[in-house]
Specification:
The N terminus and C terminus are likely disordered. Among the domains are: 58 residues, no CATH class; 214 residues, no CATH class. It has a 35-stranded mixed beta sheet that branches. With 629 residues, the protein is mainly beta. Helix 1 runs antiparallel to helix 4.
């Protein structure tokens, strides 16, 4: 692992130290000096990553020049006029051999511009309203130069169109292979516009580093749109790409400190048959407005082995700010390393996973709206959410990882299978050491054919509001835990089926819980109401699916106190996520009158499984008001 990779991983890994670490299969709060390292967020990660990437070729002097030293070159349709010793003209081909600033104006019906300079100074090409077509090769080919800058003159429209296929002097050649092709460092900027038609392969391609500082750039290409091998840096500008390959790409696979893409600002719109943004190492986004479509969008079906991801990184994806709208046939965001999001607004729609990481996923800020064909968020290591607003409106499994930590923020998810699934992927009812750790936040889960909260290991809840609209499928439950479910704080209400797998928190919890089971199915119009002996509302809940069971835990449930459960009735309050937080409740049927005498109190028709390893019937209190029937 390179120093840059280590710094990125450490910063993203605050999911372990700032929020939680896993000890012996249970999650507990972490503290210490590690927090100072890990709590830096995506902005610090981007800074470190860029610093470790050996810098780029940019210099402030790249963007300014002395107008008196500008060399004018006229493109006259079928000929070229160049009155300079720094360039040679051979028919319809211009070769620039010396450093300097060259201003190109006019139309070249069939020709090309070649830069082939041994000078150590910069070569600038000012495109001042040009239209260059080449029927045999690339219209602009930087064969050799210390550094080349393409400046788009203010208020000008510039067009470059290449051949299909190319004709090479040597049949073994495969370069150039893009309408704008540079073998050395290249920068593009300006207040004008550039439209590129890459009919042979790529639109704009650089074998070293490529910087786009500004300008309006439109590319249509049969393969990749814009490619910087060592790095692709976008500071600003308006970029629109239509490609049959990837959109933005950096693919240096020989140097671990290169092969990255950095977007600081600007407007980027990409429609790509392949990946919209693909980097060999990191994708770093500090801001901007990005609209990405890959593989035809989220409603398309992937065929074969094609990769059609919105954003794909060989190491890390880091998003600090910006507005991202992604519709992808494959994963919306995919990383072979880690994903770290600390800000911005992300609207993701995917045919596969919404966010997929082989490492950790950390979402510590911003707003994320996601609809996925498969998993909403999946990580092979850990997922941590804090401060952020995360909404998953469609998924198979909502959030899946061996270690899932919710520290704060708002999380809402809809899943056909499990809502939260903490697992190492072992298909067994044994405790696999995974953990779902909820330390705060406002969480709403709705599942149709899977468990609401599922852990193949343990569940730990210390604070927060957790609302689970559990499944109707009889073999699935609102909460399923193979290990221990410890509840020491927070507000928890879970609806579910009449399965004998229905679980309450473990009796080792310090906060009391109630497990209510009805002998008949209740419809979505039937309220569940719990009140204390004084008639004060504890909870009034309306599940979105028909239900038999309710699991409830709150600091208001105290041992030795008496409570009543009513089903049906009405409330004048406003319902939010199934909860009536105000208004007046008019009683329906009193289903139970009971006294809490243990950590877990079973009420109703059955109570065979309050939690893993627990006494099946602790605290039962049959009563004239219903109780056990």
């Amino acid at each position: 692992m390179s120093k840059r990779e280590t710094m990125v991983w450490l910063a993203c890994a605050f999911v372990f130290s700032l929020l939680a670490v896993c000890h012996d299969g249970l999650c507990s709060q972490a503290n210490g000096d590690e927090q100072v390292i890990y709590a830096r967020g995506a902005e610090g990660i981007i800074t470190d990553a860029l610093a470790e990437n050996k810098g780029n070729h940019e210099d402030p002097e790249d963007y300014s020049w002395d107008d008196s030293e500008v060399i004018d070159i006229a493109l006259n349709g079928t000929s070229i006029t160049a009155d300079t010793d720094g360039a040679t003209v051979d028919g319809n081909e211009l070769t620039i051999t010396s450093a300097g600033t060259y201003r190109l104006t006019g139309i070249l019906e069939d020709g090309r511009i070649i830069v082939d300079s041994n000078d150590k100074d910069i070569v600038r090409l000012i495109l001042n309203g040009v239209d260059i077509n080449c029927s045999t090769n690339a219209p602009i080919f930087v064969k050799k130069a210390e550094k080349t800058v393409i400046a788009l003159a203010e208020d000008t429209e510039n067009y470059l169109t290449d051949a299909a296929p190319y004709v090479y002097d040597d049949e073994l050649d495969n370069e150039p292979n893009a309408a704008v092709f540079s073998k050395d460092d290249l920068t593009i900027f300006g207040d004008g516009a550039l439209t590129v038609y890459g009919n042979y392969n790529d639109g704009i391609s650089c074998k070293d580093g490529l910087i786009i500082a500004s300008g309006t750039i439109n590319v249509t290409a049969v393969d990749d749109g814009i490619r910087g091998k060592d790095y692709l840096v976008i500071y600003d500008g308006t970029i629109t790409l239509y490609t049959r390959g990837d959109g933005l790409k950096s693919d240096n696979d020989k140097d671990g400190d290169k092969g990255y893409i950095y977007i600081e600002d600007g407007v980027v719109k990409i429609s790509a048959a392949g990946d919209a943004i693909e980097a060999q190492t990191d994708v770093l986004i500090a801001g901007g407005e990005l609209s990405l479509t890959s593989g035809g969008g989220s409603k398309q079906v992937l065929r074969g082995s094609v990769s059609a991801k919105g954003i794909k990184a060989g190491i890390d994806v880091v998003i600090d700010d910006g507005t991202l709208t992604i519709s992808s046939a494959d994963d919306a965001i995919h990383s072979n390393g880690s994903v770290c999001i600390s800000g911005g607004t992300l609207d993701l729609a995917s045919g596969d996973d919404g966010i997929h990481s082989d490492g950790s996923v950390s979402i510590s800020g911003g707003t994320l709206n996601l609809a996925a064909g498969d998993n909403g968020i999946k990580s092979e290591v850990s997922i941590t959410i804090s401060t952020a607003a995360v909404s998953i409106s469609k998924s198979s499994e909502g959030i899946e990882s061996p270690l899932i930590t919710i520290d704060s923020g708002n999380v809402s998810l809809v899943a056909t299978d499990d809502g939260f699934n903490a697992t190492y992927g072992v298909d067994s009812e044994a405790n696999d050491g995974s953990c779902l750790c909820i330390y705060g936040g406002y969480i709403v889960v709705s599942t149709t054919n899977g468990d609401g909260l599922d852990s193949n290991g343990n569940i730990e809840i210390t604070a927060g509001t957790i609302i689970v609209h559990g499944p109707q499928a009889q073999m699935e439950v609102g909460m399923d835990c193979n290990g221990t479910c410890n509840v020491t704080g927070g507000f928890l209400v879970i609806s579910g089926t009449n399965s004998d797998m229905t679980e309450a928190p473990s009796t080792s919890s310090s906060q009391c819980s109630i497990k209510f089971m009805s002998n008949s199915q209740m419809s979505t119009s039937t309220l569940f109401h719990l009140e204390d002996a004084g008639g004060n509302n504890i909870v009034t809940f309306q599940p979105v699916h028909s239900y038999y069971s309710i699991i409830f835990s709150s600091p208001e449930i105290q041992q030795g106190s008496t409570y009543s459960i009513y089903t049906g009735g009405t409330s004048t309050g406003t319902v939010t996520d199934g909860l009536y937080l105000d208004g007046v409740y008019t009683p329906g049927t009193q289903s139970a009158l009971f006294t809490v005498s243990g950590t877990v109190t079973n009420v109703g028709s059955s109570g065979t499984n309050p939690g893993p390893g627990n006494d099946p019937n602790p605290g039962d209190n049959p009563s004239p008001g219903g109780g056990r029937r």
